[in-house]
Design brief:
homodimer; about 240 residues; mainly alpha; elongated; disordered C terminus; DNA-binding
Chain lengths: ~240, ~240
DNA sequence: CGGCAGAATTGAACGCGTTCAAAGAGAGTA
DNA sequence: TACTCTCTTTGAACGCGTTCAATTCTGCCG
């Protein structure tokens, strides 16, 4: 959860929202380190203690960002996933939407990732706390496949949504370190790697590579199942 | 660099070493957050200000850890790389050495990675500040290839050391989140992925896959060259 | 109306990482 | 010895995130 206390009164909910909006605004204006909890409280018209009544820490305010971009990304994918046909076009659309969605937050994304990378942080993408979000993301990639003409008999089929999620995390990692204007290099990375992925998935069905694919798939499943934070194999038909 | 000031006198060098050793000991005893700069200074018999004279920040003390494990890893690879033959055996040996080397630091590795993940941090593996270390690592993987019987005519040849370095970073990332006893899951990951990598490299030379390999290689090189922090293509013969 | 329980709010205080003006120590020079 | 320059060391002070005992607000019951 993002907050320590879910407000029970309307007034409380309003205070909480005011603190959150102020924090997000200041983060964008001054960056994470440049924003103090005292400043957030002052500009929101409350005391510091009150901010901590609704948010357990400064990091938890950042988490609100993460959730916001995630939801924006889901929304931005709706239209392309309804219209686009073919694996490549659909994957490209989803990745493009991701980069467009997170672009405004690049300047302080370092802090976001910094806390997200900490295995103990609730922001960590592998943590139990962010499991719902991860499930939604994985389901998104399942939908990418669903509308594609990818051979569903492939051994890789059931593991592909998870693999694509990992790929997408890798792209975000690259994006974080991308200092080129308008994140052109990340755009290039996507433009080059998406067709590559499409080709590899196709090739995975060749008789020559069957054994390799099977071994890889079996290991991936085992890895997922022995993990404490399994997002599950996402069957396109079962995804919501 | 790890320090702000390189001591010019013997006494200064001694003080610096005492602070560093105390810090590393306390980090292991109490963890990163449990260790205060005041405690480090007290136990080292100096003032807080003095600690900051030699180390720009608490994070810079952590960087000493990183450098230490890196050097331990290089040393641990010497013997296997002299004796082991074949791509698979050599890569396995290097990865095994890595996991063994970093194991003692797993309990506070979260903090290490947390700061390392920040693009602005000097600890960041992609930063200019850690370029020398990255070069050494990449050269290590070049040596893995050097003693192997991998077809050097492969388009992939010159990019492989960099790719293996990225693979090795991925394994470390996995390791950070691995809560299994003795990091068994990471060991499994290596045991399964190393043979997979060997196979893929071999397959990359098949006529059928030539085009794919060439496209991938060209993009990798371009990516590396347009990057501000290029570790360079490491030719095995030129590696030291 | 009075009283009360729980939610909401306060702000002083704590411990932390970090800074900096000032003082000390030591070596070279006249 | 006295002066000076640079390297080293000091510790009080600053601003930060965070905590918590105390207070105020709010709706509800008798």
């Amino acid at each position: 959860m993002t907050d320590r206390t879910t407000p029970t009164t309307d007034k409380g909910a309003e205070t909480r929202a005011r603190i959150l909006e102020t924090a997000l605004r200041l983060f964008l204006e001054r960056g994470y380190d440049g924003t103090t909890m005292r400043a957030v409280a002052r500009e929101a018209g409350v005391s510091v203690g009150n901010a901590y009544y609704y948010f357990a820490s400064k990091e938890h305010l950042i988490q609100a960002f993460y959730l916001r971009t995630h939801e924006e990304h889901l929304a931005a994918c709706e239209e392309p996933l309804r219209t686009a046909r073919g694996f490549e076009a659909r994957l490209l659309a989803v990745m493009d939407a991701k980069l467009t969605t997170i672009e405004p937050y690049h300047r302080f994304s370092g802090v976001l990732f910094k806390t997200a990378a900490d295995p103990a942080s609730p922001l960590n993408p592998f943590s139990a706390e962010s499991l719902p979000t991860r499930r939604e993301s994985t389901a998104l990639f399942a939908r990418v496949l669903e509308g594609s003409r990818v051979d569903t008999s492939s051994e890789l089929w059931s593991e592909l949504p998870n693999l694509l999620w990992v790929y997408h995390m890798g792209v975000v990692l690259f994006w974080l370190h991308d200092r080129s204007p308008e994140r052109r290099r990340t755009r290039q990375l996507v433009a080059h790697t998406v067709p590559l992925i499409v080709r590899i998935v196709q090739l995975g069905n060749l008789p020559l590579l069957r054994t390799l694919t099977r071994r890889a798939t079996r290991f991936l499943r085992e890895l997922r199942e022995t993990s404490g934070v399994d997002a599950g194999a996402v069957e396109p038909s079962g995804a919501d």
